[in-house]
User: What shape does this take?
Amino acid sequence: MTELDDNSITTTNSDVSNAVVSPKGTSSSTIIGALTAGGRSMVYQITSFYLRTPVKLFKPARFEYHHYLKTILNGEKTDKPQYPKQRYKSLVQNSSIGILTQALNKYGWKVIPDRVLPPLLINSATGVILYSTYLNTLSYLSSVEPSKDVEQISHNTINIFASGWLAGAAQALVSTPFDAIYTRSTTAEIFESVHKYKNLWNFGLEKLKEIGLVGCYSGFTLALIKESLSYAIYFTTFEVMKGNICQRFVVFLENYRGFKSKLNNLISFKDDTCIDQNTLVSDREKKWISRAFIFAGGVTAAFFLQVIQYPLTKIQKIHFSRLEAFDIYNKSLLKNPNSFENYFQKSTNSLIRGNKNTKLPHLPPFRIYLNSYIDTLLHIHFIHKNTNDLVRWLYKGFTRKTLAVIPGTTAGLLLLDYMKTSLENEQSNS
Assistant: This one.
């Protein structure tokens, strides 16, 4: 009977390269991360075309190019078709392919490098950072005892959790400014950007100057908690499913077959000292069992990712809506510095009598963004008092979004594991 350590995750030779840190391994991890992010994005876009989920709900694709194209093509048009033929036509026109076709017909091929590529490049970059950081961190944290047997290598669960946590933190650090620009851009600003800016890069830089560096990272605490915790559980769930639980299932299957064989020998009065080869799990069976657990691990990990990210994303939207008010104030203040001061001064003169020189206190940006978190918490408390079921409100629409996200997220993990295994087999054979 085989014994497994509860404090570690036992994997096959597919984790060999994670045990050694080298420049070649680092570059390989970056390549794997890039391919994984690209494959994940492709499957995700195909899934979104069929499920027709609203654009802003998509994940892991953080920034949707067809949301931008749809805005500049239709503006704030929200009329819903009433007849079946109109609904079918609207479905085709509002799909990713339909929107891209309309944009090409209206703006020409220049729309691809100017309006389509920037979101795709940002999505790929965040995916590369996520997977590459995870692979390199896991390789650094994992320790392997010198042995000739490389068939089994143990990765501690804590190391996997820490690697996923750091990978999520790295992605949050890079993506937070883009999230701020993306979520705090109004429909009117996006619609005007077509005539005002040559491409999305110029629009993003101008929006970055308007918000400021401190403003871009104003929601970093929420993003850090969401990304770090969710991806720590995401990668840990996947590795546990395909490693420890898979191995335990193989051991259970062999023990069950062995017990059944001994029972048959006892009933038929046969010698039970010889080992029946039928009780052992063949390599082909292990291969199929491993594939099944890898797939199940990907689906389970994607589900738990949404369990954590979905409610936190709703809270983020509330927080960003608070920050938009500060953006509007700062933008108006830059255009006419005296307007807001005079307005508030006149409104407070009725309360402050006898002192016309009284001025409102000017809070520094850091203090303002700190107060925005308090305002967000108060708003959530207000929702809880009105709904009497905050959890239900946070997870409203969870099923539909999860069904849209799981295929692409699972495909990313499957491609990641496949690329890791192929690369490690080449390194072990060389």
User: Anything to note?
Assistant: Residues 8-225+311-429 form one domain. The first strand starts at residue 8 and ends at 11. Strands lie at 8-11, 153-156.
